[in-house]
């Protein structure tokens, strides 16, 4: 996922979203984000049976627990049989091959934007197409990148590496030593799961370093470079080095030429943490200003530390606040809650600065000043730090803008970056060495454009424009508000094809997320436009509470005991769209993945009468055992702990797996997952399908054997998944 900077996301959101590529935090490069960028997880353990007295269903209550063993022969035989049945029903539809070909042409398009990261030796891109399904790491110059067809130099051929080693390698990004970024630790996943190995790579020689740093055990975790011969390593080091959520809790200092098993420990958290690690307080020039550490004590709460005189000093900041970056000699913090300190109150979602040298001398006593506070319905969306400035992407009533911050003449100044209005704007790349930034500007109907800003001159130019993948002529976008159960107004977007009549007969697809402070925003619909809108479908995007569209409180108002508000908001949007005769229950389908899979699962079980089709992608589904499956224990901060009776009561009210019961006519859902998904784990979708089958309810189930949490490792797999889903939608909603 993530091209935009994730600075505005919570610890938990970054854990959930981290997939591949490097997530940048400007100059700070906190260890947390370094590890998230590597996004690795251990090989899945065998399913754990709950203790008899914790109220969590065990084998006696749940006959499908055997499906939690991701790669048992019995489970895989079940998967193969389900795949064969689903492919027989969907892939034989005469529209399937056409839909797949259309999707694959978009994914393999050679004129799509090759997004880049800016490094001292050039612009780097990871590219996948028909000839390179696993991808190329390649680079070019800015001058060449401006050309219609840049001259690319291949740095690493992942297909060739996979063939040579007989492995299903998937590239998961790199962590490079600043400031030159010549030496990097490359992350490789076998089959697409989050778990990676790490190998040292020389970008100048375009080869792995002989006798260099290597970590061949698959693990969640990552590294940070202290210097050319020293790494900070946070991974699975064996017994006692993982949290209950199965993330690292220990960081070691590893010297070149020594055994990692002998590396001394720098920092250790607690097994009850979600994740713990040490990091470096480093600026964009590569200067290290000290050592930091964090303990993610829950999914949305983190303790931060600074090493002072050889001891770890906990920073006196809220659990929902975090360091944000180093700008103009200041260390910035962001807070998701009101922060009362030093006789002043900094509002939630604001930016707070402290002079870096004063912080190093007295981390908790140094004076703090306000840099920025959000206006009404504003929130930070992402940010990056160049050699000179801080650039923050904002959402203003779900519309994008970018603001530049500088410290000069003893005060912080704020200036707007001139970019198109009424669009979604992301920070795509930036330079540590120069004041250079790239932005993406997109909306539902207009192809994405990539802008380049030279901050030193103020010069702005459009570098690249995505091709038009579908005919948007005559199509329109409208924003409406639905009234949720408690009276809250919930916005949603509707993308309609030309000539559509409001008579309730239009096939419509409603999607959303509604969790972890992650916003769902307008973006070019690409394959959805081609496969769905061009065929007369309507696309609806909901902005429910629990997401990040309107800042931290929009999220915090719909978690744990209030999570039902997210489901209520989604149902309210469906009801509102039907009331406006945009569609009707018979023609309304819903789709969501991960937390979004839980969203559509709750909608299906709470209001089965409201939908004609349901696509449940890589979902959370069994919420009474979710803490025992995959990385589930890390998400207790979002949903609650089913082992605690009071909190189990919240979850029992909506857990889709338990809410599937006999005597109810469900709208024939299509559930799909990935065997290699070691984040939400395929057991959730498997068990949902198995329970529907036991009750004699119609359903579809499909599982990719590789691909991890993103669903596919190459464009062929991604195109097939898209075609299966849109055949299903056309059959259920349009035929």
UniProtKB/TrEMBL annotation:
Keywords assigned: Hydrolase, Protease, Serine protease, Signal
Task: Give the GO biological process terms.
Answer: proteolysis
Superkingdom assignment: Bacteria
Q: Which InterPro entries match?
A: AB_hydrolase_fold, Pept_S9A_N, Peptidase_S9_cat, Peptidase_S9A, Prolyl_oligopep/macrocyclase
All residue ranges annotated as the Peptidase S9 prolyl oligopeptidase catalytic domain in the record: 532-731
Q: One GO term of the cellular component aspect? A: cytosol
Q: Where is the Peptidase S9A N-terminal domain?
A: 60-465
The answer to whether keyword Protease applies is yes
Mention one GO molecular function: oligopeptidase activity
Where does the signal peptide begin and end?
1-50
Q: Does the keyword S-adenosyl-L-methionine apply?
A: no
| UniProt name for this protein | S9 family peptidase
- Origin organism is Erythrobacter mangrovi
